[in-house]
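Sample intake — ABC transporter ATP-binding protein
Collected from: Gracilibacillus marinus
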Amino acid sequence: MSLLVSNLTKVFGKKQVLQSLNLEFTTGVYGILGANGSGKTTLMRIIANVMRPSEGNIYYDGRDITIMDHQYRDLIGYLPQHVGLYKQFTAEKFLHYIATLKGLSKKEAKVKVKETLELVGLYDRRKEKVGKFSGGMKRRVGIAQALLNDPKILIVDEPTAGLDPKERIRFRNLLSTIASNRIVLLSTHIVSDIEFIAKEVIILKDGRLIQKESPQLLLKELEQKVWKVIVSNEMEIPAFQQSYKVGNIVKTEAGMELRIISDTMPSPHAVAVQPNLEDLYLYYFDEEVA
């Protein structure tokens, strides 16, 4: 199973949102990482076939998805950033409604609704109205509706935005569980969402592909570029912030400890430390963080 994105470009007016993207996906989780405005949502909408590209094509197992038409849409499960839920519907009723829209028979819907509610941990709450659910529970209803048609390609856009840490962990563990026989595309700007579950990380910036590698290889490229510097005088900190990308600043017994991302050693007393994905984000998106 493969999904090939070929020379994909999208233009809105005079703004080029995506610039000649070439990507290939196979079974597993792919984290699409980028700041707001990087083109993540536009890419997801095009792959989900709810938006047409200005140029380029997408192929599923070698077949152009525009020719496949409804056959391709039947393979898609899509959870947009803002999913519309009918607040007066119970979780069970809402999923039955979506199952009907997706063309499932009553018999199929009964089985799939029960199955997906159990998968997302909401079967015991199935008779409650979704309007009373927490943000995390609503996102779980969203992923349940996306899974009703047993999609081969699952697309989730910023699924953990606004969720507390516990719900974020629950959600990413769920995605990891269901990715064994699917292509899962996870768009986010929260690096911890993809650090442990992504097969590869795709980094987009201003609509361009910057990197596409496994998290391990991306972090290996950052070795000797992340440093720890301890300063005894807080007055020294602004000078480092002006000259370098400073991530964390932590007060310790030895002084103020700065975590600095730099291609060169920022101080004779700097010590190289193990990079993480937050460092990677800062390395590519320091302007957005600032």
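Post-analysis note: The radius of gyration is 22 Å.
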